[in-house]
Design goal:
It contains ten helices and eight strands. With 222 residues, it is of the alpha/beta class. It starts with 6 loop residues before the first strand and ends with a helix.
């Protein structure tokens, strides 16, 4: 039976990597270092998935460039000083399974390229991904350019790609690109918020993905 999707594009933080606590702590430390009023866990959680500029400007509308650069510099210092992020349970097995089944795998992330390359190597997952796009080399989510560039360079039709993510920014990006999406509810944004973006489904664990793909394929070809 042919596959419904040829390409699966994953968000990174909150979808494959359990990095929420580390991102929140790094941003809060950056605000403290820059002498800014502290930001709550909830406010930082809300901007996970955006590019750095969009994230900081959402937290501090109208921020001047000097303050922005100071916060970004301190965020990167704290994030890279002790990156304790780990993959969610089963991520390695899922990626290996999908890779062996012949799916093309890619990443679309709000991380910068430096952080993404480091994360791919340290996780051991670099071998599974054929392509990736980061927020500092194209438009940030939810702009569709990141996804459009991936499908175009891989020559995959939009209707043969699936975006998997944990935030509304991932799903809105997919909607804007005309690409199907699948939500995961264990990351930054709540299930109800994700469902408002009309994904094909909402997983409680990444380990459910291979079985979901099988069910969706059988239903599609019935």
């Amino acid at each position: 039976m042919p596959k419904v999707f040829d390409l699966i594009v994953f968000d990174w933080d909150g979808t494959l990597m359990d990095s929420e606590a580390h991102i929140i702590n790094s941003m809060q430390c950056a605000f403290d270092d820059a002498g800014m009023e502290s930001v709550s866990d909830g406010r930082v959680r809300n901007i996970i998935g955006l590019g750095m500029r969009e994230a900081v400007e959402t937290l501090l509308p109208g921020i001047n460039n000097d303050t922005y650069e100071s916060i970004v510099d301190r965020y990167r210092y704290h994030f890279f000083a002790d990156d304790s992020s780990e993959p969610f349970d089963g991520v390695g097995e899922v990626l290996e399974n999908l890779y062996d089944l012949g799916y093309l795998l890619a990443v679309a992330t709000g991380k910068g390229r430096r952080g993404m390359d480091r994360a791919l190597k340290s996780s051991g997952f670099e071998k599974y991904f054929i392509e990736s796009r980061c927020a500092d080399e194209t438009c940030s989510k939810p702009d569709p350019q990141m996804l459009n560039e991936i499908v175009e360079v891989l020559e995959v039709p939009h209707n043969k790609a699936l975006m998997v993510g944990d935030t509304e920014y991932d799903l809105e990006m997919a909607n804007a690109a005309g690409i199907a999406s699948l939500a995961v509810e264990y990351g930054a944004h709540e299930r109800d918020r994700l469902l408002e973006c009309n994904p094909l489904g909402c997983l409680t664990s990444i380990q459910e993905l291979p079985e979901w793909l099988q069910r969706h394929t059988k239903k599609y070809y019935q």
